[in-house]
């Protein structure tokens, strides 16, 4: 069993803490606010918590679970307190701007991204089992320390996640299509409702499903757009072309063509989520 450090005790850091502790690891947590540290202790997310990164000095592995713009600044601060043997990993939703820079600063860095979340944020939103059966991407470089990669890999498997490995660049392109674009499309869906009060009376589970990610943490959506801008713009372009095509078929009353498109979309979804 390992001593695991978490920096950032919000939805993701808190959920990791709950699962690592229930697997028998010792979990030490650092967060920005004292009140978050206290709530994390009460919720059982960590064994000990502090606002001071020095708490993590004996950890074998440290997960940086802060908002995206704070990952590299946090790594820089951690360098002053950790032994060079410590493995550092992160959970940020964008990898390209982080992994090369972090590896250059800390040779035992491994980029990671759990593909799980809810519409909520903060330590109160932490959930046991959040990562179970969900993909968890690791994004090593050719130069990534193999022992560090293997250790993070084992911890990810211990969460019950499905490990996937991609380069940071491929990760960012794929995540733009299956995670960041859906946030923007879902937000557009919400923003395009005309009479919100009347529509609220009628909306059912379909709208609940399709609007979920657009109604999530605005700071996270903003950070995705700022840090994965090129890939999101490319995905939006492809989405707009697909939407235009559907619109054209409806305008032309090309019901045969529209049905074929909807058959294709159904088949594609079954490939993503078979049951
Ligand atoms: P969150 O619930 O808002 O939690 C972020 C936490 O970071 C907060 O609890 C905050 O602590 C802490 N924090 C902020 N600045 C800090 C600092 N300087 N030092 C230490 N802690 C600091 O956000 P989240 O959803 O867990 O997201 C965290 C990371 O996970 C992001 O990089 C995001 O890209 C990634 N991620 C998110 C999701 C998702 O769906 N939400 C999914 C996968 C990956 P205080 O409460 O003490 O202020």
Structure summarized in a few sentences:
The chain has helices at 11-22, 34-43, 71-78, 96-105, 146-158, 168-191, 196-202, 205-211, 218-227, 229-251, 255-272, and strands at 3-7, 26-30, 48-50, 61-64, 87-90, 109-110, 112-114, 135-138, 162-165.
Topology, please?
Layout: E1 3-7, H1 11-22, E2 26-30, H2 34-43, E3 48-50, E4 61-64, H3 71-78, E5 87-90, H4 96-105, E6 109-110, E7 112-114, E8 135-138, H5 146-158, E9 162-165, H6 168-191, H7 196-202, H8 205-211, H9 218-227, H10 229-251, H11 255-272
Helix pairs in contact: 3-4, 6-10
Bound molecules: NADP nicotinamide-adenine-dinucleotide phosphate.
Residues 7-13, 30-33, 36, 65-68, 70, 91-93, 113-114, 117, 121-123, 217, 220 line the site of NADP nicotinamide-adenine-dinucleotide phosphate.
Q: How would you portray this structure in words?
A:
With 275 residues, the chain is an alpha/beta fold. It has 11 helices and 9 strands. It has helices at 11-22, 34-43, 71-78, 96-105, 146-158, 168-191, 196-202, 205-211, 218-227, 229-251, 255-272; strands at 3-7, 26-30, 48-50, 61-64, 87-90, 109-110, 112-114, 135-138, 162-165. It has a 6-stranded parallel β-sheet, sandwiched between helices. Helix 2 links the parallel strand 2 and strand 3. The longest helix has 24 residues, at 168-191. The protein is globular, with a radius of gyration of 21 Å. The model has no long low-confidence stretch (mean pLDDT 97). Bound molecules: NADP nicotinamide-adenine-dinucleotide phosphate. Residues 7-13, 30-33, 36, 65-68, 70, 91-93, 113-114, 117, 121-123, 217, 220 line the site of NADP nicotinamide-adenine-dinucleotide phosphate. NADP nicotinamide-adenine-dinucleotide phosphate (NAP) binds at residues 7-13, 30-33, 36, 65-68, 70, 91-93, 113-114, 117, 121-123, 217, 220.
């Amino acid at each position: 069993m390992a001593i695991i450090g978490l920096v950032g005790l919000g939805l993701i850091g808190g959920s990791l803490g709950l699962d690592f502790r229930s697997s028998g690891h010792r979990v030490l947590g650092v967060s920005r606010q004292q009140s978050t540290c206290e709530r994390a202790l009460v919720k059982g997310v960590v064994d000990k918590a502090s606002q001071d990164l020095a708490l993590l000095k004996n950890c074998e592995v440290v997960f940086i679970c802060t908002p995206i713009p704070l990952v590299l600044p946090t790594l820089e601060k951690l360098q002053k307190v950790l032994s060079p043997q410590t493995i550092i990993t992160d959970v940020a939703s964008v990898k390209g701007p982080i992994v090369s820079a972090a590896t250059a600063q800390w040779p035992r860095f491994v980029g990671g991204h759990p593909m799980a979340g809810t519409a909520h944020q903060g330590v109160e939103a932490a959930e046991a089992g959040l990562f179970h059966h969900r993909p968890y991407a690791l994004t090593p470089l050719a130069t990534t320390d193999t022992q560090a990669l293997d250790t993070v890999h084992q911890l990810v498997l211990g969460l019950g996640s499905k490990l996937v490995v991609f380069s940071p660049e491929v990760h960012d392109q794929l995540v733009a299509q299956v995670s960041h674009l859906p946030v923007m499309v879902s937000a557009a869906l919400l923003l395009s409702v005309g009479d919100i009060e009347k529509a609220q009376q009628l909306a059912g589970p379909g709208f609940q499903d399709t609007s979920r990610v657009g109604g999530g943490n605005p700071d996270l959506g903003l950070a995705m757009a700022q840090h994965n801008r090129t890939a999101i713009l490319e995905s939006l372009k492809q989405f707009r072309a697909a939407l235009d095509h559907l619109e054209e078929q409806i305008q032309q009353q090309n019901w045969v063509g529209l049905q074929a498109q909807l058959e294709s979309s159904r088949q594609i979804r079954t490939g993503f989520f078979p049951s």
